[in-house]
Amino acid sequence: MAEFDFDLITIGAGSGGVRASRFAADLGARVAIIEARELGGTCVNVGCIPKKLLSYAAHFAEDFEDARGFGWSSTNPTFDWPAFVAAKDREIERLNGIYERVLAEAGVLVLRGRARLLGPHEVRVGTRTVSAGRILVATGARPVRPVLPGSAAMITSEEAFHLKTLPRRAVIYGAGYIALEFASIFNGLGVDTHLVYRSSGLLRGFDADLREHLASEISAKGVHLHPTTRIERLETRGAQDTQGAHRVYLSEGTTLEVDCVLAATGRTPNTADLGLVEVGVTLGGRGEIQVDESYTSSVPSIHAIGDVTDRIQLTPVALAEGMAFAERWFGRGLRAVSYERVPTAVFCHPNVAAVGLTESAARAAGMAVRIFRSRFGPLKHTLSGRNEQSFMKLVVDRDTDRVLGVHLVGADAGEVIQGFAVALNCGATKAQFDRTIGVHPTLAEEFLTLRTPIG
Predict the structure, then answer these.
(1) What's the rounded Cα separation, in Å, for the pair 55 and 71?
(2) In whole angstroms, what is the distance from residue 347 CA to residue 251 CA?
(3) Which of the following is catalytic: 226, 303, 407, 440?
(4) 16-65 pLDDT, tens per residue?
(5) What CATH number does residue 415 fall under?
(6) What residues make up the domain containing 322?
(7) At what angle do helices 177-188 and 48-67 cross, to 10 degrees?
(8) Residue 370: CB partners within 8 Å, gap ≥ 6?
(9) Single pTM value for the model
(10) Is 440 annotated as catalytic?
(11) Which residues, other chains included, contact 130 with Cβ-Cβ below 8 Å and sequence gap of 6+?
């Protein structure tokens, strides 16, 4: 008889947990995965997928306007929020079913319920106790509300996907990925949108020139920006989703009457009430599980991947970690994850994408750099008449000619940056960029035509 019920028990059936479980099972491990909610985790249910669908929906307003410049004419279209939510929910339900099917086909047992660790090898699920040689925690993270008077009435990104009605006026509190994406979504769908943020700039950690350009573009599209501003308190006078439900008091001395206040001020790892501390797992200051390069916690049989470790909170990173974990402990250990030059995109309007070092990070590291930068109106808008500017920037090592960073604001930026991420991970130089023939006419080719450094 085997010492344990399973070789691996995974807690959390999000992107990372499912990927690790499937790979481990394919490598011959006996695997169970525990999930209390819908399969697919944040990304599928209240993150990447529904958010991108919302972004598409919001962009149609501009597409309809732009079409007139290309000879199209039509009556004014209208947007049906309940119809969109219903269509979105059908797609999410379809994806939930796919996750369930792929786990079953891999031979992974799905256990439904809330998990709690009882020891280094034991987990309780409801009234059942199961054991495994290794336990993987992949419970992700959740949005947090700021601590201020009345903040309990704020919604987060998770509730935003299920609003019964589209608000007429909204405040988004924050300046990161989620805040910018929902500000663009609401604004694109006709909501009078205010973006309130405590910092002086958007998207902390991105290149300074990109941040400045993006703020100008988002403001031009109609989002009201309130930098270096805090929400002091929130008074709620009606039910959520009702007109004028909230009065928002800002530190700049003004008040806003809005229907919805969305908090997008950060996310925290889901480690509460899992029994981690009780079994000896060390947590960091934000509640994250601290792990080494093999994803092992302070308890040798307990591991963690994805957002619960608070390294880089991106779905593709969790997927890569899931594969590396399975290979490390149930394969030959040949797969590793590099956390350098990880590409990322923000699906605000216009889109943002980047890979590699910012100018300030390169200079802070003591590198001598050459900077190439361009702002221009895309071909599409020569006929649409829209005054939207794209932005691109290259950071190049002056000594080696290696391209250190690629930064972009423009249509489909996430699609464009993927290829450049491959190039940077292969050590591409500016000379190689210059020798590459572009695809014309495209946005991406502009990176290959930057010839004159600005510094």
Answers:
(1) 25
(2) 29
(3) 440
(4) 999 999 999 999 999 999 999 999 999 999 999 999 999 999 999 999 99
(5) 3.30.390.30
(6) 6-142+268-330
(7) 40
(8) 396, 397, 398, 430, 453, 455
(9) 0.95
(10) yes
(11) 5, 6, 9, 32, 111, 122, 123
